[in-house]
Each structure stands twice: as C-alpha cells, then as structure tokens.
C-alpha cells in the first residue's frame, strides 16, 4: 500500500472517530451537523498530517504497518488533537475524554492496519 492510500485510510479513521464523538455528545449547543463534525475532526486530522510530514514521509516508513508508522500516527493524532482541543476550549480536556479519545482513535488507526495485514496474507 502506498503512503497516499495510508494517509487516506488514517484520515477516514480519524473522521469516523470524530463522527462517533459527535454522535455520542450531541447537545442543543453542539448539534450533530457537518460543521460540528468537521471542527471535531480537524484538530485530530492535523495530528495525522503532522505525523506524515515529520515521520512517515521523510523516514520512508512502511505506512501500512502498525509499528512504527501506525503508532506514530496514532500518538501524534491524539497529542495534537487534544492539545488543539484544549486551546480551543480554554481548558485541559477531562481525563475521561482523554482516555476515550486515546482508546477509540487507537482502535480505528491501528485497526485498519491490522485488518490490512490479515487480508493481505
């Protein structure tokens, strides 16, 4: 799998993560709509792009592998995403939000790679 296809898969995985988060946490102040989903997705997507710019592309890492590429993408997506979320909301994210965001994004970002590995064999 080439890096562009992996970037697309990671972007979709993080997009699904943001969609699930918006579905779970919709309120009258934060309704489920495209704009809300996009602004939830964007900080974490920035982390995905940063991972590709600083580690995957220059390091020529096999982007479909769980280690080290998947772990790098996942870690940077969570760190950058939660940091931007904190700045946007003027507060440190609640610990339960950090655990759920870390776990859910791991399942999606690492999960597609595990499925890819199983299906390629």
Automatic annotation (TrEMBL):
Keywords: Membrane, Transmembrane, Transmembrane helix. The chain crosses the membrane at residues 36-57, 69-88, 94-116. Pfam families: DUF3054. It comes from Corynebacterium deserti GIMN1.010. This is DUF3054 domain-containing protein.
